[in-house]
Structures are given as structure tokens and as C-alpha cells.
Design brief:
Blueprint (H helix, E strand, L loop, with lengths): L1 H25 L2 E6 L5 E5 L2 H5 L4 H4 L4 H6 L2 E3 L6 E2 L1 H13 L4 E8 L5 E8 L5 E7 L1 H16 L2 E7 L5 E3 L1 H4 L4 H10 L7 H17 L3 E7 L7 E11 L5 E10 L1 H44 L7 H31 L8 E3 L1 H17 L4 E6 L7 E3 L1 H18 L4 E11 L2 E10 L6 H4 L11 H7 L5 H11 L3 E7 L3 E9 L13 H11 L42 H4 L6 E9 L3 H11 L3 E7 L2 H8 L6 E5 L7 H10 L8 E6 L4 H9 L4 E4 L4 H19 L8
Parallel strand pairs: 14-16, 20-21, 20-22, 22-23, 23-24
Antiparallel strand pairs: 1-2, 1-7, 3-4, 3-5, 5-6, 6-7, 8-9, 8-12, 10-11, 11-12, 13-15, 16-17, 17-19, 18-19
Helix pairs in contact: 10-11, 10-19, 11-16, 12-13, 13-16, 20-21
Length: about 700
């Protein structure tokens, strides 16, 4: 019975040894014991196979220093190669040491495999040498290191218990020997730039305390680079009970990215400063323009020869051209400086179309072109619009069509369309002009760009109109489309979301929707077209929606289908009006005097808002023409003082004369109680039309004519 037990015990022991050997082989691990004479006494696992030296029996009895000296060994941390003499010396010293310790090295076999050699010395003159084939690990590690080096990246880790920092070779290789020692001793903060050290320390302490992931950006100071930027992305490693054990992080060199970001920010800052400068110049440039255009307009009342009148017309045309270029440039500057805001209000799109049509009908017709307006009867009567910006876009479209069309027609089309289940307003301007090639159509929306040099020489312009329109359209949440055929004409369209309530604006027609819109009309569209073919859209006929007639009356008072007989009325003088012009510029005062001095009963002047209040307290005034920018008291302050007063003039009509025609300025004027605004440079017709609008509204309010005489 006893013999059976012993035999069973022996079998179990042999089974355990067999299992251990299987585990060692599966892990590519083997070991050998070495005595104080450096002789290998015992092996376990395939030591010889891992080293590529035949069998274990051949290894037993060999001298370990001679065996290892035949290979190339290196320090796994520094990758420094050891000579056979250094290998033998290190083993001798370790065997003679009375302190237990361990060493580690990397060995390269004759067939190129990588083997990690870990040796444990017991302090009694013996040691155990463990070898492990790490060829696959080394291969991937080398690839990782190569990738890290190519990306100027690496990794680091910290053990909180020992305080030891570990860095990848891609990090260490960029440092001097002194910096490497300092980094290994004191960690990351030893190379952090002094100016960033305090803030990074605070953030690091907060991360360790909260155990959260981290993402640091900081500068490092090294011998190679005094201001290199690094980014460390990592996490805190914790025990199951939440105790922080250490940290690991991926680190990358972001110096180039930071440099690009800073350069871009600087470029934007310079661009914004330029744009703001241009915007500030608006007032200064419009002042002399106001004098040129206003004085020229006033000369038409004089008894002049036909030759002189033609000269005056040339002066006016040149000044208007300069005004046009100035307005376009300033619009572009404001868009680039991101100061343009969209203001949505409930409005009838037909009113916008009516206003635009009345403006362009005479100009287009005078060129011998047919001007048509086609409106979808299903168009909503009210929707959220920025009327000013929408008119600006349509004006640019129509100006472009009128400029590049010598014969044929210009058509303004409006329709409602359902795109991806949502209603949209589609406004298109179609012409029979010169059109564009495919390459030219791709550049049309770039600022300061025209199809070619001959376009600028023949037709003039800045090349800003379509760029401004595209930017405004996108600010309104829409997109712009173009269909063009060279020699046949072009169609530009705005596609805007029909909004019922205020909301954050975003592009109304997503990219994936474009293909749907194009597919619907692709049968008759050229390959480079990005616009639904307007001819195939179901719209009201010209009989159902007759072309709009030009009028001089205000847009609010004229229906879209009005006829010339209904609306063409001569402008009448306002002989019963007492007008106060508040303007600090003497030249602008002379302009106003020459324009309307003979058309009104009395014309008074004040140099600033304070003087205006004195005049109002002295004489009766029906209308105030109020400049905005003035010393002592500006037009905004003066208007607020007038409106909040209990004086008899508290409700006097106030019309702003502003050198800043921006919509924001107009909204401010309206919100503080002004009745109307006129943008400089100003002409007689502008002032008289403003009188007509404001006095007509006032007459309607009180049921009788107010200071309006024939």
C-alpha cells in the first residue's frame, strides 16, 4: 500500500514537471542554472532551441560567459551593445556580489531572432538565467518605435510607488545624455518650459486627485529646441480599490501644428484689422462722395447748357461707380471680419420681389431687354426673412444679368419647393447673356475673381458681387446654385429654408440633398450644372403673374401687379415743411441746402445733437434730418433725448442721414425711434422719397394730411 502511494506521488510530481515544461515551451521561455564556476549545471525548457545552439545536453557543462560572449548583447534601455569582454566582466561581478539582484539584456541570435535574457543572482555565487524569444514582440515594438519616430511621437509612464518614469526611445533619442539622466531621475517636469511648469503642475495634481483622463499641451526646453510644443494624452492607472498606481500617456510633438495655428490666428487678426479699417473708412469716404453726388444732383435745377448737363451726368456716373465699388469692398470686408449678422423678421417675399423688380425694371428695359417676373402662386404670404440681405443678393444677381446680357431677356423667378421633406424658397435670375465655361463657373464665387481679364476690361467690376452673395446666402442658412452655358446665358438661384420661427441658421440644403435636387432635372442640364433647370419647374404663367411695373412710390404702398397708370405720380414739393438738418460737416450742410432748400418752407441747421435740441426748443420743426456720428452729442443720443422728452417736439419725424448703410445701423435707428434712414451719399430724390414715406404713414395714422402740400 505504501509503495503504491509513493509511486502515485512520484507520478504526480512528474506530471507537474511535465505541465511546467509545456507552459515554458508555449511561452517560448526556458531557463538554466549556473554555479559559482560559471558552469551550466541544469536546463529546463528548450534553452538550446531558443538560442539556436543544438540541444540542452550539449549546453550542460558549458561555461556561460563563453556561451553568451559569442552573441551580440545590448542594454534593453539604452540599446548600447556590449563587447564579449564586457559581458564576461558583468557576469563575474554579479556572481561575486553578496547582494541578491537581477540583470536584463537583449540578445540577437545568429539567425537574427531577438531573445531577452534575465538573470537572477542569489548572492551566494549561483544564478538562474531565463531566456525568452521576443522576436515577434521586438518586431512590433520596432515598428511602433519607427512609427513614433516618423510622427515625432512616443509614450511615457510613471509608477507612483517607485516614482520611476519610463520613456520610449523615440522620446529619449531627441535628448542629450544629460537630459536623459535628468528625465529618468525627475520625470517629465524636468524638461518642461519654466513658463509652463506652474500651470502644468496644478493641472497634473488635479488629474491625479480626480483620477480622470488627461490631455496636456505644454512647451519643453531642450538643448535641441528651446520652445518645442508637446501634447500628452493619457490616463491614470488605478487599483481595484481606486488607489492610483501610475500613469501612462501618448506624447507627440505638436510644434508645427501650434505654429500653424498661431500663424493662422495672426493672419486672421491682421485680416480682421484690415477689414475693420476699411469699415471705419466708410464714413470718411462717403462724406466727399456725398458732396460730389449731392452737389452734382443739385446743379440740375440750374439753367445750364446741354454740354454742361452732360458733364454733370458724367460726374454723377463716375461718382456712382465709385460708390458702387466702395459698397462692394466694404461688404466683403465686413463678411471677412465676421461682423455681418442675419436679422430675421416676418415678411412677405412678394414685397421683396416687388421692391427689387421696381428698381431693376427701368434699368433692364432701357437696355432693350425684356424683363419678366414669374411667381409661384403657392409662395407663402409670410415667412422669416432678412429683407435687406435678401434684396442685396437679388440685386447682385440682377446687376450681373443686366451687365452681361446684350440682347434677349432677364427673368426673375420665385417658387416654393419641398426638399428632403422641408419647404424651401427658390429664387432664380435667368438671363440670355454671354454665359460661362465650366472652368469659369468654378471661379465665379471666389472673391476678386472674374472669368478672365477681358471681362474686367469690357464690363468693369471688382469680382466681389457673387462672392458676397454666396456668403450672405450661407449666413441665411441657404445655398447658391449656378447653371450656365457659354454663349447661351446663365441662371443663378438662391435656395433658402422657409422658416416659421426664429432658430439657429444652418445650411438648408445638405450635401446629400444636392444630388436629389440635381437628379430631378438632370435630363436637360449640362454636365457641369449644379442648378435645377428653371424651365422645367411648374410655375405661374406670365398671365397669372404679370411683370411688375416700375414705380416711384414706396414699396409698401404698391401691389405687385400694379400698372404704370396706377402708380406713376410726379414727385410734389413739400412747401409747408419746416426741416432741421443736424450735420457737423459744413460741406454736407451745403449739399442738403442745395438739394431741398428751395423745396421746403424753412431749413434750419445744427452742428450736433445738443444744438438740435436748442433749435427744437426755439422754432417749430416738422422733420429732422439727423446725422449719426457727431461731436458733443451724436444722432443716437439726440434721438433718445427727443423721444423721452415731454416737449411738443417729442414725436417729430426723425430721418437718419448715415454714412454707414449697414443693416445693423438701420435697425438701431429704427429701434431707438427714428422714422426712416437715408444712406449717404444722398440725392434729392432720396430725401423727398423719405419725406413722402414718413408723412404718408403719419397721414394714414391720423386720418388726415400732415404738412403735405401740392
Amino acid at each position: 500500500m505504501k509503495a503504491l502511494t509513493l509511486r502515485q506521488s512520484s507520478d504526480v510530481h512528474m506530471g507537474i514537471e511535465s505541465d511546467a515544461a509545456d507552459i515554458l515551451r508555449a511561452a517560448n521561455i526556458a531557463y538554466a542554472t549556473v554555479d559559482s564556476d560559471r558552469i551550466i549545471r541544469h536546463t529546463e525548457g528548450d534553452v538550446a532551441g531558443i538560442l539556436g545552439l543544438g540541444t540542452n545536453d550539449q549546453l550542460t557543462g558549458s561555461i556561460v560567459t563563453e556561451l553568451l560572449g559569442a552573441f551580440q548583447l545590448e542594454d534593453p534601455k539604452t540599446r548600447k551593445a556590449w563587447t564579449p569582454k564586457e559581458v564576461a566582466s558583468n557576469i563575474e561581478k554579479s556572481l561575486l556580489s553578496a547582494e541578491p539582484h537581477r540583470t536584463s539584456s537583449l540578445l540577437t541570435t545568429l539567425d537574427g531572432r531577438r531573445v531577452r535574457v534575465n538573470t537572477w543572482y542569489n548572492g551566494l555565487g549561483d544564478c538562474t538565467v531565463v531566456v525568452r524569444d521576443v522576436t515577434t514582440d521586438s518586431k512590433y515594438r520596432n515598428l511602433f518605435e519607427i512609427a513614433m519616430g516618423a510622427a515625432n511621437a512616443g509614450f511615457w509612464s510613471k509608477d507612483f510607488k517607485s516614482g520611476k518614469f519610463t520613456y520610449s526611445a523615440s522620446v529619449m533619442n531627441r535628448l542629450t545624455t544629460e537630459e536623459q539622466v535628468r528625465l529618468q531621475s525627475n520625470g517629465l517636469f524636468s524638461i518642461v518650459h519654466p513658463e509652463d511648469r506652474e500651470s502644468l503642475t496644478r493641472e497634473w495634481m488635479e488629474v491625479v486627485e480626480s483620477r480622470r483622463d488627461f490631455d496636456f499641451k505644454y512647451r519643453v526646453r531642450t538643448a535641441e529646441n528651446d520652445g518645442m510644443w508637446q501634447r500628452s494624452i493619457g490616463q491614470i492607472v488605478c487599483a481595484p480599490d481606486g488607489t492610483p498606481l501610475g500613469a501612462t500617456a501618448f506624447v507627440m510633438d505638436i510644434t508645427e501644428d501650434i505654429g500653424k495655428t498661431q500663424a493662422l490666428a495672426s493672419e486672421r487678426s491682421v485680416s480682421k484689422a484690415k477689414s475693420e479699417f476699411l469699415a471705419r473708412m466708410s464714413h470718411e469716404i462717403r462724406t466727399p462722395l456725398n458732396a460730389i453726388i449731392g452737389m452734382s444732383d443739385s446743379l440740375r435745377d440750374e439753367n445750364l447748357s446741354q454740354d454742361v448737363r452732360e458733364v454733370i451726368t458724367d460726374i454723377e456716373d463716375a461718382a456712382e461707380g465709385l460708390h458702387y465699388l466702395l459698397s462692394r469692398t466694404l461688404d466683403h470686408a465686413k463678411l471677412m471680419s465676421e461682423t455681418v449678422k442675419i436679422n430675421l423678421d416676418s415678411a412677405d417675399p412678394r414685397q421683396v420681389l416687388g421692391t427689387v423688380s421696381r428698381l431693376w425694371k427701368p434699368q433692364i428695359s432701357n437696355k432693350g431687354l425684356v424683363f419678366k417676373v414669374i411667381i409661384d402662386p403657392s409662395l407663402p404670404k409670410s415667412m422669416l426673412l432678412d429683407e435687406f440681405r435678401l434684396q442685396q443678393c437679388l440685386n447682385n444677381f440682377l446687376a450681373n444679368a443686366a451687365k452681361f446680357t446684350k440682347m434677349g431677356s432677364v427673368t426673375l423667378i420665385a417658387r416654393q419647393s419641398i426638399i428632403k421633406g422641408a419647404p424651401h424658397l427658390v429664387l432664380a435670375v435667368k438671363d440670355t447673356g454671354i454665359g460661362m465655361s465650366e472652368s469659369e463657373s468654378k471661379l465665379i464665387f471666389d472673391p476678386f475673381t472674374q472669368a478672365d481679364g477681358s471681362i474686367q476690361r469690357e464690363y468693369g467690376g471688382t469680382g466681389l458681387g457673387m462672392s458676397i452673395t454666396k456668403n450672405l446666402c450661407e449666413l441665411m442658412g441657404g445655398q447658391i446654385r449656378l447653371k450656365t452655358v457659354q454663349g447661351e446665358g446663365s441662371t443663378f438661384a438662391l435656395i433658402l429654408p422657409i422658416l416659421e420661427k426664429a432658430q439657429d441658421l444652418s445650411p438648408a440644403v445638405p450635401q446629400q440633398t444636392e444630388s436629389k435636387v440635381e437628379t430631378k432635372f438632370e435630363a436637360s442640364a449640362p454636365k457641369h450644372s449644379t442648378l435645377p433647370v428653371v424651365e422645367t419647374i411648374t410655375l405661374a404663367t406670365s398671365e397669372a403673374a404679370p411683370a411688375v411695373k416700375p414705380v416711384t412710390a414706396p414699396a409698401e404702398a404698391v401691389p405687385l401687379d400694379a400698372t404704370a397708370a396706377d402708380v406713376e405720380k410726379p414727385v410734389q414739393p413739400f412747401e409747408g415743411l419746416n426741416v432741421l438738418c443736424v450735420e457737423d460737416n459744413p460741406i454736407n450742410q451745403k449739399v442738403v441746402k442745395r438739394l431741398i432748400g428751395s423745396r421746403v418752407a424753412q431749413l434750419y441747421f445744427a452742428d450736433n445733437g445738443r444744438e438740435a435740441l436748442n433749435v427744437l426748443n426755439t422754432v417749430p420743426v416738422d422733420v429732422v434730418l439727423m446725422d449719426i456720428h457727431m461731436p458733443v452729442m451724436d444722432g443716437i443720443e439726440a434721438t433718445l433725448e427727443i423721444r423721452k422728452s415731454n416737449a411738443t417736439y417729442a414725436n417729430v419725424i426723425i430721418i437718419a442721414l448715415t454714412a454707414d448703410p449697414d443693416y445693423q445701423q438701420r435697425r438701431i435707428c429704427r429701434n431707438i425711434g427714428m422714422d426712416d434712414t437715408i444712406a449717404k451719399p444722398v440725392k434729392r430724390e432720396d430725401i423727398l422719397n423719405a419725406f413722402d414715406r414718413t408723412l404718408t404713414k403719419l397721414s394714414s395714422k391720423f386720418g388726415q394730411e400732415v404738412a403735405l402740400t401740392g
